[in-house]
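Section 5: illustrative case.
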């Protein structure tokens, strides 16, 4: 199972700890276009993506959707600020394809944290990774051209990026759909 391998790679947990944690996750399926969380909703669970692609986006005051993140199989996912604060989400997380998740509720995470310091260390690593991703995203938007950002996506997730709509990719890259079409054709 992908989640077991994901947890094992950190070398923090015994096999028994991983097996016990696996019992706390439940499977959820999502149809393309459905939401893991919507703006204003509380997020009280964390998900591991087994299958499918998700995008995180927010609505501008003009009503435009701004995609700022994609999540792929093997990734952990949550409306992180809403999960931490217990307040309503400022983002939407939407399935871009049919998807399967393993989810764990916040109270079960709290149980694991109370049971073993290894889980505290794991959550620290996850928070650090979120920060590094956010920092990299800000630097990409300020430093790299749209073509460089697109090339980076292609290198990281080639099989999935080609299946994401031009509309969502262009929003993520901060460019128009027409500009993205030119980039894809190799004409800038």
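Designed sequence:
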């Amino acid at each position: 199972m992908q989640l077991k391998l994901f947890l094992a790679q950190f070398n923090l947990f015994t096999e028994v700890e991983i097996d016990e944690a696996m019992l706390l996750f439940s499977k959820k399926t999502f149809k393309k276009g459905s939401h893991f969380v919507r703006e204003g909703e509380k997020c009280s669970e964390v998900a591991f993506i087994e299958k499918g692609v998700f995008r995180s986006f927010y609505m501008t005051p003009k009503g435009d959707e701004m995609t700022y993140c994609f999540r792929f199989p093997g990734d952990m996912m949550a409306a992180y600020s809403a999960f931490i604060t217990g307040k309503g989400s400022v983002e939407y997380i939407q399935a871009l394809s049919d998807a399967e998740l393993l989810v764990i509720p916040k109270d079960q995470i709290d149980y694991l944290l109370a049971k073993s310091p290894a889980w505290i260390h794991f959550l620290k690593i996850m928070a650090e990774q979120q920060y590094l991703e956010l920092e990299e995203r800000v630097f990409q938007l300020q430093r790299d051209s749209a073509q460089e950002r697109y090339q980076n996506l292609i290198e990281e997730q080639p099989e999935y990026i080609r299946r994401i709509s031009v509309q969502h990719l262009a929003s993520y890259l901060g460019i128009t759909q027409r500009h993205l079409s030119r980039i894809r054709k190799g004409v800038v």
